[in-house]
Specification:
eight-stranded mixed β-sheet, 21% helix, two-stranded antiparallel ribbon, alpha+beta
Length: 201
């Protein structure tokens, strides 16, 4: 009688793929967001390369529609975004929106954004006559489908100063990463969350 243990069969290609998929899913939560301006934790991301213009435009449009749709839609992008990025975002926002110019007192100032696989976020300072609200807009998508609103958080705080127009001058229009954006002094008072249509509760 043969008492030797039977050989363990080698993994089939299907089993190998399944194990790899499980490992990949397990690591998803550990992957940091790729942010712009960069925070030094995730991979680099560039505002003029897809899906960055889509994320910026979707976040700005969602914030305007959900928070104050009756005020002017005047926006500002992070410092370092090229004219190509500004043009792409403008085309997605449509004729109702325009970029910030000196003297504007109502501004949707996109401070930073981040992307991680099927999730994204954008921090937007909404300025209205010297008062500001920090909006964190969360987006999500299915695979390669367009990003859609998940929810918006509102932080009532004091910011040091009104934003400045970040539209690049002709000699500054280079597709490179530069750190920038207004610095805010967070004095959180209230947090409100608006769930997006179809978002999971």
């Amino acid at each position: 009688m043969n008492r030797c243990p039977a050989k363990v069969p080698a993994c089939t290609p299907l089993a190998t793929l399944l194990l790899a998929a499980i490992s990949f899913i397990g690591l998803q939560g550990c992957v940091p967001y790729a942010t712009y301006p960069p925070d030094g934790h995730g991979p680099n991301v560039y505002p003029w390369i897809a899906p960055c213009p889509e994320v910026m435009a979707t976040a700005l449009k969602s914030a305007h529609e959900r928070v104050a749709p009756d005020v002017p839609f005047i926006y500002n992008l992070p410092k370092g975004a090229s004219r190509k990025a500004w043009k792409d975002v403008q085309s997605r926002l449509g004729p109702r929106a325009r970029r910030m110019i000196e003297g504007d007192t109502v501004v949707w100032d996109l401070e930073r954004f981040g992307i991680r696989n099927t999730k994204a976020f954008a921090d937007i300072l909404y300025w209205n006559d010297g008062r500001s609200i920090l909006l964190t807009v969360s987006l999500e998508r299915d695979n390669i489908m367009p990003f859609r609103l998940s929810h918006i958080q509102r932080f009532y705080l004091k910011a040091k100063s009104m934003p400045v127009d970040n539209y690049p001058l002709p000699d500054q229009d280079q597709d490179q990463v530069e750190e920038g954006g207004a610095v805010v002094e967070e004095t959180e008072v209230t947090v409100e969350t608006d769930a997006g249509q179809g978002a999971e509760q």
